[in-house]
Amino acid sequence: MNKNLALGVDIGGTNSVFGLVDIQGNLYFEESLKTSAFLTPEDLVDKIYERIDAIGQLKNIIGIGIGAPNGNFFSGTIEFAPNLKWKGIIPLARLFEYRFKSDAILTNDANAAAIGEMIYGAAKDLDDFVTITLGTGLGSGVVVNGKLVYGHDGFAGEYGHIRVINDGRPCGCGRKGCLEAYTSATGVTRSITELESINKSTSELKLINNPSSNDVFRLADEGDLFSKEILDYTAKILGSSLSDFTCFNSPKAYILFGGIAQSGKPFADKVKKYMEESLLKIYKDKIEIRISQLHDKNAAVLGAASLVWNQHN
Fold first, then answer.
1. Phi then psi for 103, rounded to 5 degrees?
2. Mean pLDDT, range 245-269, rounded to an integer
3. Of 200, 203, 194, 188, nearest in space to 261 by CA
4. Which CA distances in Å does 106 have to 66, 155, 173, 208?
5. Range list of H helices, the chain
6. pLDDT > 90: what percent of the chain?
7. CATH assignment of 5-115+297-312, given 3.30.420.40, 3.40.50.970, 3.90.226.10, 2.30.42.10?
8. pLDDT tier at 296 (50, 70, 90 boundaries)?
9. Within 10 Å of residue 111's Cβ, how many Cβ atoms?
10. Are strands 71-72 and 104-108 parallel, antiparallel or unpaired?
11. In what side-by-side order are the strands of the sheet with 15-21?
């Protein structure tokens, strides 16, 4: 194949996914690596280079787009990301440029997912929306009038670290009570041990060694009462929080992306219910809760790659 391609890279707290994407959004190659398996970011960059070289596509890459937690669009750096073991300020865009000899653009991973939804997915008809990524952490990409909101320093849209419970659970960022500590996949698993319930002792979750958020949602679907409580607790905190965030930019929709969102319509409907209960009257019945249309394609990879195509247009 001899075709211009963008390398899209999604750096996650658990997995890092990368793929080759053309200008129409067709994904020609995709692979996932365990982020924690790499002691340094240079090691991860080298591995991605090695894999692209192995399939003979280095010559076709015209640019690299990267989505990363605490990614700063202006500086091309990851800065103090709580869910990565690489600490401090990491010049990741520069590392990719040095290794691949190609221009690289970096942004927050949730911003990349938002771009992916806007160009290829559930937000193609929207100019005002927020993508909420529910993975190891919780990220948000805020789009107003068709443009991502970066703020003056590149760090706008950190909804996961808005505190929603006074003096609540410790968060990886060093504070307490952040939304991420309750409604991310990690937050759901913490609820298994921290929530008190009369149904806890009979739950099938007790039979699973190190149960995951996927186990909670699967068992809730099968009727496990404690798992259903956890699902409801998670949806209530998220929905109530989104009702408050609405006052900031009045989005047409919140788009849920990530493992928790893949549990589908029942969870989205619960989030919508609790959001509507708490909304300011002027916003009621105006905001949709949508589920990503790109779970099988990886919105973050497509969004990261689209940074390249935006630059070349």
1. -60, 140
2. 89
3. 188
4. 5, 12, 21, 39
5. 41-54, 92-100, 109-120, 180-183, 185-194, 213-222, 225-249, 265-278, 299-312
6. 77
7. 3.30.420.40
8. low
9. 31
10. unpaired
11. 27-34, 15-21, 5-11, 61-68, 104-108
- Matching fold, domains 5-115+297-312 and 125-291: yes
Q: Where are the domains of the chain?
A: 5-115+297-312, 125-291
Q: What is the pLDDT of residue 104?
A: 97
Tokens standing for 210? Answer: 């190190």
5, exposed or middle or buried, with CB in 10 Å at 0-12, 13-18, 19+?
A: buried
Q: What is the token pair recorded at 305?
A: 């790659």
Architecture category of domain 125-291 in CATH: 2-Layer Sandwich (3.30)
What CA–CA distance (Å, rounded) separates 161 from 178? 5
Q: Exposure of 85 by Cβ count < 10 A (0-12 exposed, 13-18 middle, 19+ buried)?
A: exposed
CA distance 279 to 239: 9
Q: What is the DSSP string of 152-203?
A: TTS----GGGSB-STT-SB-TTS-BSBTHHHHSHHHHHHHHHH---TTGGG-
Using alpha carbons only, how large is the chain's radius of gyration in Å? 19
Cα angle, residue 53 at apex, residues 94 and 37 outer, rounded to 5°: 65
Q: Check: CB of residue 160 under 8 Å from CB of residue 140.
A: yes
User: Residue 208 pLDDT more than 90?
Assistant: yes
Residue 170: Cβ within 10 Å count: 12
Give the whole-angstrom CA distance, residue 118 versus residue 19: 19
Answer whether 68's CB lies under 8 Å from 76's CB: no
Give the model's pLDDT for residue 299: 75
Q: What is the DSSP letter of 123?
A: T
Token readout for 180 is: 């991420």
Tokens of 257: 């992306």
* pLDDT (average), residues 294-307: 81
Total number of residues shown for the chain: 313
